[in-house]
Specification:
Elements (H helix, E strand, L loop, with lengths): L1 E6 L9 H9 L14 H10 L11 E8 L1 E3 L4 E3 L9 H16 L4 E6 L2 E5 L11 H4 L15 H15 L2 H8 L7 E9 L21 H7 L3 H13 L1 H10 L5 E5 L4 E5 L3 H10 L5 H6 L2
Antiparallel strand pairs: 1-9, 2-6, 2-7, 3-4, 5-6, 8-9
Helix pairs in contact: 3-5, 7-8
Length: about 290
């Protein structure tokens, strides 16, 4: 395979390399989508409601709201994985209903999607960059909070929800069952979704997109045994499928993403493959991963 695209960045970007790569595949990397403003929440809403009449009149600015647990240390708070809370639909719905009145005061409406992730609709999300959950999990939340005057509304809502959750009956029940309380929320996926006619066309590889999360999930859990197993599974399943498709003459694209950067490779047409194999010596995988 030959290197066809390099996305260089740093580990402090709010939109990590894998989200930037997925944004390009879905045609969401047009003008105006600055760091932290890839409109994932608006895009998901559109995917869910694109066949419902009247949806084109709704706001195009959305955000994800994730109920979560901040682990309070002596000097800072650390964001833990929202999915590890094991929230039920009923408990998540009750928490969302309790929060709704506060959000409505700022012109925001909440919509239940999954226990660990809600959609929030409101014009306030158009120009407020927010950090991806993948950037913050297991880290001090302070450097990743919405910044400046534009982020003041979201920071205030976070503080209000922390006070609301502190005495909420659901958390009393969770504590009795020795479960972590839901003590905060996280905003992400903000941005304004352009009208469909103004977006760049999504590339054809979107039709067969695969974005395995097993490696990232193992790293976030600091589970290196699972990390090794994930590599073996990728080799046995996804990589085998890619090789089969490549051998059949299909052009296959592979994007490797790290903390800072991403490298995209593409298989050469069969007629050129032998020539490229002679001209280009493959680099060891470890060397490629170190550049990311």
């Amino acid at each position: 395979m030959q290197l066809v695209e390099t996305d260089s960045g740093d580990a402090l970007s709010m939109s990590p390399p894998h989200e930037r790569a997925l944004a390009r595949v879905h045609g969401l990397d047009g003008d105006g989508h600055r760091d932290g403003l890839i409109p994932w929440a608006a895009w998901e809403h559109e995917q869910r409601t694109q066949h419902e009449p009247g949806e084109e009149t709704r706001a195009r600015s959305w955000a994800y709201v994730s109920p979560c647990h901040w682990l309070m240390g002596r000097e800072h708070a650390t964001l833990t994985d929202p999915s590890a809370l094991g929230l039920s639909d009923a408990d998540a719905g009750a928490l969302m209903a309790a929060m709704q009145v506060y959000f409505e005061a700022d012109g925001i409406r909440l919509h239940h999607v999954a226990p660990q992730r809600w959609l929030a609709e409101g014009d306030v999300f158009k120009d407020i960059p927010t950090a991806s959950l993948d950037r913050v999990l297991g880290r001090n939340v302070d450097p990743w909070l919405p910044a400046g005057s534009t982020g003041q509304t979201l920071r205030r809502l976070q503080n209000e929800m922390q006070m609301l959750l502190y005495t909420h009956p659901i958390n009393d029940a969770r504590s009795a069952q020795r479960q972590l309380p839901v003590n905060s929320i996280w905003f992400s996926g903000t941005g304004d979704l352009p009208e469909r006619g103004r977006r760049p066309a999504a590339p054809p590889e979107r039709q067969q997109l695969s974005a395995p999360r097993t490696l990232a999930d193992a790293v976030l859990r600091d589970d290196w045994e699972a990390y090794a197993v994930a590599w073996g599974s990728l080799d046995a399943l996804e990589a085998k499928d890619w090789l089969t498709r490549q051998s059949a003459g299909e052009v296959v694209r592979l994007t490797l993403c790290g903390e800072r950067s991403a490298l995209t490779f593409e298989s050469a047409p069969r007629s050129l493959r032998g020539r490229f194999n002679q001209l280009l010596k493959p680099k060891p995988l470890l060397g490629l991963l170190e550049t990311l």
